[in-house]
Write a structure and sequence with these properties.
The structure is a single chain. A 6-stranded parallel sheet has the order 3-2-1-4-5-6, sandwiched between helices. It is globular. It is of the alpha/beta class and 197 residues long. Helix content is 34%, strand content 16%. The protein has 7 helices and 6 strands, in the order ββαββααβαβααα.
Amino acid sequence: MTVPIIVLEVFDYRSSVPAPTQQFARKLHYAGSLAPEKAPFLQSWSPALNLTVYGNPNQTLRNQQAFAIHPPVHGDILPGIMQDGFGLVWDGDIQPADNEFGRYTRMNNPHKFSLYMAAGLPVIVWSEMAIATVVQRHQLGYVINSLTDLPALLNTVTAASYRKLQANAQAMSMRVRNGFYTQRALLTMMILLEERA
């Protein structure tokens, strides 16, 4: 590239529905494409892990008894529906490096992350995701290497540790709901253009 690059860091997520005050629960939410090639990990999900998926599943997933399925809802109101636990930011397989969609998350910024932040919901992400650095820097949740790490992780989460993550996610919620990252990028662009003029 021969021109300056502005890193957005996080997509903003405007919503007219107030962000709920998240409650401590060892529960997971997954919103996004439920296509088998995008989320193959759902095919072998353990019923011991409390998961709700949001979207329109195929027949195979509809027959799956390992998790709850919430009917599709408009993205504007979805942040108000998830009221406890963690948002799962995951694409690909149990080990994302085994799937092209998982590997892609090493360089993309997943929109579902912004959805969970708009809801003030702490997250769990793959350690090699590009967004993992944001999660760690702002202490917004947990970073794991594989979905096989989930049971042990969830067993160690306490109400006190959850409240700290939730407070940080609530602060991030205010930023993404108010367009902070877009405004910052535009302001940075204006400064760069002014300097080049």
